[in-house]
Design a protein that fits this description.
- With 149 residues, the chain is of the alpha/beta class.
- It has one domain: CBS-domain (Roll), CATH 3.10.580.
- Helices cover 44% and strands 21% of the residues.
- It has 5 helices and 6 strands; from the N terminus they run βαββααβαββα.
- The strands form 2 sheets. A 3-stranded mixed sheet has the order 1-2-3.
- α1 links the parallel β1 and β2.
- The radius of gyration is 20 Å and the shape is elongated.
Length: 149
């Protein structure tokens, strides 16, 4: 299954000049744990970084950094790892594991932002798939019982 089929298409975005307070307010307003930092180009909205709630807490608040003096561009991760919307789930999991990240922007063939996929999204999908597998065994056992009656 392509990751584009399960990613969240409504992505909260900001530009690199946004203040960290603005980014945190976006997270609170939209109840998300990440904001994708983008550049708006003729080709579309291109992801250039990501900021997570953990970045704000660990890198700024814990270090007592003056939040008014910091922009999204100062804090965002510059080694942004993205997946293409046509990539499958296993390739996405490998990217996450290999880079040690829990969230990935999903891009189209031109590099434009299409969505975001989170570790939690994949856990939910895989849990549902495992549940479906368990039902196969249960159905098979029920069919056997009925035949034996």
């Amino acid at each position: 299954m392509p990751i584009g089929e399960i990613c969240t298409r409504e992505v909260v975005i900001a530009d690199a000049k946004s203040s960290i307070v603005e980014v945190a307010q976006l997270m609170r307003t939209y109840h998300v744990g990440d904001v994708i930092v983008v550049e708006r180009l003729e080709a579309g909205t291109i992801p250039v970084g990501i900021i997570t709630d953990r970045d704000i807490v660990v890198e700024l608040i814990a270090r007592e950094v003056d939040l008014d003096s910091v922009t999204a561009g100062d804090v965002m991760s510059y080694e942004l790892v993205c997946v293409r919307e046509k990539d499958d789930i296993w390739a996405t999991l490998q990217h996450m594991r290999g880079k040690g990240v829990r969230r990935l922007p999903v891009v189209n063939e031109q590099g434009g932002l299409e969505g975001v996929v989170a570790f939690d999204d994949l856990i939910e999908l895989l849990a549902d798939e495992l549940s479906q597998l368990a039902r196969i065994s249960e159905s098979s056992q029920n069919r056997e019982r009925k035949r034996l009656e």
